[in-house]
Amino acid sequence: MNILHNKLNHIELRAIQSEKKHYEDVKAVSIEALKIVQRSRGWISDELMREIAEVLCISVSQLEEIATFYSQIYRKPVGRHVIKFCDSVVCYMLGCEHIQSTLETILNIKIGQTTVNNRFTILPISCLGNCDKAPVIMINDATYSNVNTIDIPILLEKYK
Amino acid sequence: MITILRKPETHPLTWRLDDVHKSPIWISEYCKKNGYSALKSILKDMNPKDVINLIIDSELKGRGGAGFSTGLKWSLMPKKINNQPRYLLCNADEMEPGTYKDRLLLEKIPHQLLEGIIIAGFAIEASIAYIFLRGEYINAAQNIKRALTEAKNMGYLGKNILGTNFNFNIILHTGAGRYICGEETALINSLEGNRANPRIKPPFPATVGLWGKPTCVNNVETLSNVPAIVLYGAHWYKSISCCSNDRGTKLMGFSGRVNNPGIWEVPFGISARELLEDYAQGMQAGFQLKAWQPGGAGTDFLTVRDLDVKMDFQNITKAGSRFGTGMAMVVDHTINMVSLVLNLERFFSRESCGLCTPCREGLPWIVKLLTSFKNGSATMSDFNILEDLCFQLGPGKTLCAHAPGAIGPLNSAMKLFRSEFKSCINTNDKINNMNLKKNTFELNL
User: Running DSSP on this structure, what letter comes out for residue B181?
Assistant: First the structure.
């Protein structure tokens, strides 16, 4: 993993190239390519946008229209761990606002912000499809159900 | 916990599941429990036309929310010309608030979905299917990937499937987070690597779809129903619903302040009361039912009065709402309807793709107005603007069903719980109220 470098490395390039064979048109790889690069870099910088666009033979503005449309592509740096906070209707009725205020108090940030130590970013997310176990939050790739305010500090401790 | 005796004849979607271990059904267990027998039988005895006719006869309706006849949708695919590619898309972009039915099928019984996709692919003479899975369903993605490898190793996918001349592949494509991707033409745009804006119809995807080629889009649950219909026949499928025009079983659920929130496979036509009281085991102690949404965030509210309604497309429509995804949720008496609707409209406003003006401009306006209601600063004119916006964002005025879906719950809440909205109005604002009287005009349509 080459976090500081703004050139795509051969692992990323190979992963992008191997996606191409699945589609009739290479543009279809755009979203996956952004995700591949974001997985190791955390977010997509302007330089990386240019690099990816070049590999896919599309214009940077074409790639930009995708990168800014989808909520899981980050065009600004995020913390090492991204907390996706479900604020959809069932979580709302079961008290997700308390979860929100607990997260905001402990981390001393609002939704959409990153902690000073760059450890966490909180972002809102549409229903995570776990309404029978609401409230739900997702940290990186893990989904946590039936979350309550007491569990949150313990949960956050797992992510250092 | 309630115990449900699940049998293949009565619970075709979920009978293979084990309540104790709750682990996914992998290929050895799936095959032991009749899996891939439907695929074997169609490859041996049927041609694509026969399969389409069988699905038409079964009267299977799409489970994504619209309820269009699946067999008819398949039959609308144009005649195959030479080797022009045709595509099957499995819509697994489940993001409707309150809905979690496809997650169960994707995570626990992936092979049932794959078998349904392969049969559908055979019927519409496609050679590639894409599963468009929402990016946040990480476990589902892992399980589908493993199931795809297993199916390939067994010869159910790839070239010359089971020794026939049928070649078919399934590719897993994951999204990057946008609710609108669930709309079938937006899904096609997103898969092509564009913004997920809906397309103007016609042309319909059946003729001009993915990369301009004939394309069929089906929901996860719809496709998961296909193997059982092939195995047990159209007549059996029609017989398992109870006193309903809709056929077969449906994954339905109740969430909110109920004792046993969950998801169950039940026959169409079951009453909402039975679902709520017997399956979800009623409201939690100290909470009373105030309203409920029958099938996701975009469906109109119903009340206690409507609990005896049958859960199916026609009867829920008659009751004044939409069946939608069939995943219901209860609103208890402690919830303020204005705040609840504000939550729903914030979601719809955030997720508007922004392509057409009424949706892009109207939904944030609704959010602003509802916020002023919640703050107690709304005036009577705000109430009228809200009503007007419900009209301006209604069916037929926007490119897709996003805005009409958004105003459904708002409109119904304003009708059913008018007093809660009115009680938020700042009656001291006399000047505003006087101006309102002068400026109000009625639309006579």
Answer: G
